[in-house]
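Batch manifest, entry 17 of 40.
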Amino acid sequence: MPILRSEPGRITFSWRSIATIYAIIFWCLMTVVVIIVGKERIHILQTTTQFDEYIYAIIFVIYLVPHFWIPFVGWGVATEVAKYKTSWGAFQLRYFRVTGTSLQFPRLKSLIVVISVGCLLCAILFLLCLSFLLEGYPLWHTLAYYHIITMINMNCALWYINSRAIKTASYSMALCFRKEVMKDCSAPIISKYRFLWLNLSELLQSLGNAYARTYSTLCIFIFVNIVIAVYGAFAEIVDHKHGYTISYKEAGLIVDVVYCCTLLFIFCDCSHNATLGVAKGIQKTLLSINLLKADLEAKNEIDLFIVAIEMNPAIVSLKGYVTVNRELLSGSIGMITVYLLVLIQFKFSLDKSTTNV
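Output type: structure tokens
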């Protein structure tokens, strides 16, 4: 995403920036490669007669689709993402004023470097595995997929880093709040931490709103891939006639399923942990306060804090369309199962019709 740090604490996006121009030029060049490979993949689809083989060939076409939505889900939301990144600077400043300490993210730079290199290596390894295991996927075709798989991996990694940052901020805030309340349980201290917590909760919600378009399309992409890959592996297993042996094709489809399921799990689990982290530490401290030693104003502030937590739940929502947590993971499994049953039913019907003929 072509966003730049224009000054300390301020992230901006401009269509005329060097980063944006570079992104557009690179995208245009890769579009040529994607179209060339895409034509060959579509030609394979047109010449395939078997239903199962047709399903396998669709996977490689689907993996080309994310390239064409980059301007829509990447550059199109860059302004909102820049505002979200800038709001982190305002939160850190307020955090310093309230707690008297700077918000620290231990080993953040090292983590970013390791994750970035890991995403690139995973993309290369994943594509080489598919090229080796699945038929009709020559090695040179992977040239059109490297930047796409790397982008998908980096989106997942970006979500992990953002969720981890919010979780770290919530734990640090809860620790500072607990220390100050143990020293002096007064109304002004509770009040300033209440506003700081509301600021953090708003930051968590703006994470989902800023990236809603990006991760909505990513979820759809993952769901479709899992359905097709699981069906392909199941169809191969059912068609075994001479005992059970895992063919290269099945292994390739299983690799695809594991890859997509891992992405979906990271996406849902990180949001779930961040959501729990924002409320858990503060609530624990509020409930541990000895109300017998607190004055009336402090008690009122505690009640207001608890009401604020209940009325403003810390959730990650993609602009209200879906709440990202572990329930999304279980719901996705149910939806994928339904579509798999439909495809399996369709396969058995085709096999029965072929046998009768």
